[in-house]
Amino acid sequence: MEFTRIKEKKYHKLGFLYLPLVGGVLLFLAEIVTVIYSMALLYLLPASDWILTLVELSGFLFITMAALLWARKVEKISWEELGFVKKSGLKHFLLGWAAGAAVLTGCVLLMILLGGVRITGIQISPRMVLQLVPLLVVWSIQGNAEEVLARGWLLSSVARKNGIWLAILVSAVFFTVLHLGNDGISFLPLLDLFLFGVFAALYRMKTGDIWGISGFHAAWNCFQGNVFAFPVSGTAVGEAFIKVTPGGNSWISGGSFGVEGSLISILVQSVLIAWLIYSLFFKRKKENNSNTRIDKSSALPYDVENGKGVERKE
């Protein structure tokens, strides 16, 4: 498999420093377009929390477009490098959705068992079920946008010259910084966001495409906000089927930040990260008895050998 190479530039090894700044500029430009888009739609559509959520989440499409435009036209990164692999894409996306829903639900159940939150109401109606369908779509748009930016473009771009480990670190820090302005931010949410960034990068490497982690991200947010009525990264998103109320320490309940502010989420993600590291690096090394290699289906342009990015040779 051939990967399009970036033109050699003396300063490119410093990409881990300037590429996150490029990402910030792309976000800023996408936000300008999103504001115009949102104002136009909200002027035409009836006002409601559901409509507002649909418009806000669908606007994340402009982040995806900005990241892809830069990656494809400026850096000349191939679609495969960005994670847009056709083989098993739908399968990985649906499995990601199932995994994200299961992990989030597991976190909530642990929080309930430990007394951090309690269920105070359940509401299911035909209207809510019908409204959930477009919500699944816009949550998928939102999840995919953040993944394309952080784990599609940034992860691959940094890995080209600086190795996979630094790429994982940079993409995780970048993802964390994106949420600094969210309501309820504090040390535990910041740690949780960083760990999710690490987990997401490893998950992307495990599946070899962007689809799996996009599905996981979308399901995590959707179930957190529209199934269990938690704030999503500090932001309330409207009606939910199961109403939960904090009933204990904020380090268990997540406080105003939601599940991502809970120590439970941090512990669960730590376990998942440990499993992925073992699966990707140590288990594979035992099987090959030579060096640790990411499977060739991986969309990243480098295999991992002793923690450094090594150009894949086909």
Please characterize this protein's 3D structure.
It comes from Suipraeoptans intestinalis. This is CPBP family intramembrane metalloprotease. One of its GO terms (molecular function) is endopeptidase activity. Pfam families: Rce1-like. Keywords: Hydrolase, Membrane, Metalloprotease, Protease, Transmembrane, Transmembrane helix. β3 and β4 form a beta hairpin. The chain has one domain. The longest helix is centred in the middle third of the chain and has 37 residues. 63% of the residues lie in helices and 6% in strands. It has 10 helices and 4 strands. α4 runs parallel beside α8 and α7 packs antiparallel against α8. The protein is mainly alpha-helical and 314 residues long. The N terminus and C terminus are likely disordered. It has a two-stranded antiparallel sheet with strand order 1-2.
Keywords summarizing the entry:
disordered C terminus, disordered N terminus, 314 residues, mainly alpha, two-stranded antiparallel ribbon, 10 helices, membrane, transmembrane, two-stranded antiparallel sheet, protease
